[in-house]
Amino acid sequence: MTAHRAGLIGCRGCGRAWPETRTVCARCGAALVPPDRRGLQAVWGWLLAGMIFYIPANMLPMMRTSSLGGLGGGGDATIIGGVLQLMAHGDWPIAAVIFAASVLVPVGKFVAIIWLALVAGRPATYRDAHTRLQVYEVVEFIGRWSMIDVFVVAILSALVQLGFVVSIKPGTAAVSFALSVAFTMLAAQSFDPRLIWRGLPLRRRKDR
Asked: What is the pLDDT at residue 155?
């Protein structure tokens, strides 16, 4: 038995279920809106924006380094370029963390949100519904860790500022990557998890 078939509507603000006749949650004051697949338009919109900004985030430099007033050379490092540099210096654990947080996690979130938006509200078994809910919870949990690459650049920019000797500044890709993560998080938050349970089959008469 789902809340929808019991004549109830769940509040997206606090999670409490109310009769379908109510329009406002008495606990948190949020508007009670029934789940609707038309709300997936916002999910697709935010997701598309995140994917667009993820392209320059990987092509443009994430970090700009200059040393000895420009006489000692410097360079620009993209996300993949920075990972390869760390690997070349033997920093495999740090390279693995940055690669996972900056490449595997964002791409995985794109794939997961696309899949959830495609199957939302469609026929499903109870096991399928629980699988979809678990995927949604994982996307919600790991979303905050996608900014680790931006945090690394910000920390280095704040700490390594030795004027004439060496200077590290964030590149253009840092802004694009931050926007991509933000838009992807908005896409996940726009997804209504109540649609996951709308595709469950009706119970058989002998099960009632």
From this structure: 66
Q: Which two tokens stand for residue 96?
A: 């693995």
Q: What are the tokens at 53?
A: 């900004």
Distances (CA, A) of 109 to 29, 116, 117, 157, 177: 31, 10, 12, 28, 14
Report pLDDT digits (tens) over 76-101: 778 888 788 778 878 788 788 778 88
Write down the pTM of the prediction.
Answer: 0.75
Q: CA-to-CA distance for 170 and 63, rounded, in angstroms? A: 5
Q: What region does 90 belong to: left with phi over 0, alpha with psi -120 to 50, or beta?
A: left
Distance CA 200, CA 130 (A): 11
Please work out, in degrees rounded to the nearest 5, the angle formed at the alpha carbon of residue 108 by the alpha carbons of 10 and 172.
Answer: 110
